[in-house]
Amino acid sequence: MFKLEENVICECSKALLLALGQKDEYTQLHSERVVELSSEVGIALKFDVEQIKILRISAAFHDIGKIGIPDKVLLKSSSFNDKEWEIMKNHSINSERLVNSLHFENSNIIANAVRHHHEYYDGNGYPDKLKGEDISIYSRIISIADSYDAMSSPRPYHNKKSHSEIMKILEEENGMKYDPIIFEVFRKIIQISHYKVE
């Protein structure tokens, strides 16, 4: 890939995240933190430069499909009803479509990663009920980083949780939601991460 194209992709990423931020600043800032947390896991897994780039772009775009979620659902200050939850779950498919529309190198890998970041290791996630290593390794990394950051930030429908509270929940869900090998890497890196909460 030419350096110019890399810069264009980077600028596209920033532009889309800024557009999302105009709609929902929380999701924009959350995505930026998930990029960094995911990168720390990728580095610990000894990803090469190309893999880290794919991981970072995937993490940046994982929630970009929320641009297409109606404000009355996306910005709702209480829990979703069943219909609203089904609408919200579409964001991962929307994210895939947006990435596929960009047609840059590795966009198919990135599109797959964003589509599946809510798949569970035990097969009970969405949208495709993939299981285990059928789920992209990028998705499996983003899933843990996404969950940690979401619980560490206050939202209208839940309070901010402490690091120990978050880790207890993640541990309970390990092997169900999360890949146990990636979880063990995350457990180690979060102890020294800038993004660890108190």
Could you please say which CATH topology applies here? Hypothetical protein af1432
Strand tally: 0
Q: What is the CATH class?
A: Mainly Alpha
N-to-C span: 41 Å
Sketch the major β-sheet. none
Structural class, please? Answer: mainly alpha
**Unreliable runs, pLDDT <50, ≥5 residues?**
1-5
Shape: globular
The SSE string, one letter per element, is: HHHHHHHHHH
The pLDDT mean sits at 89
Number of domains: 1
CATH architecture: Orthogonal Bundle
Walkthrough of the structure:
The chain has 198 residues and is mainly α. It has one domain: Orthogonal Bundle (Hypothetical protein af1432), CATH 1.10.3210. It has 10 helices and no strands. It has helices at residues 3-23, 25-44, 49-61, 71-74, 82-89, 91-100, 107-115, 137-152, 163-173, 180-190. The termini are far apart. Mean pLDDT is 89; it is low at 1-5.
Question: Secondary-structure blueprint of this entry?
Answer:
Layout: H1 3-23, H2 25-44, H3 49-61, H4 71-74, H5 82-89, H6 91-100, H7 107-115, H8 137-152, H9 163-173, H10 180-190
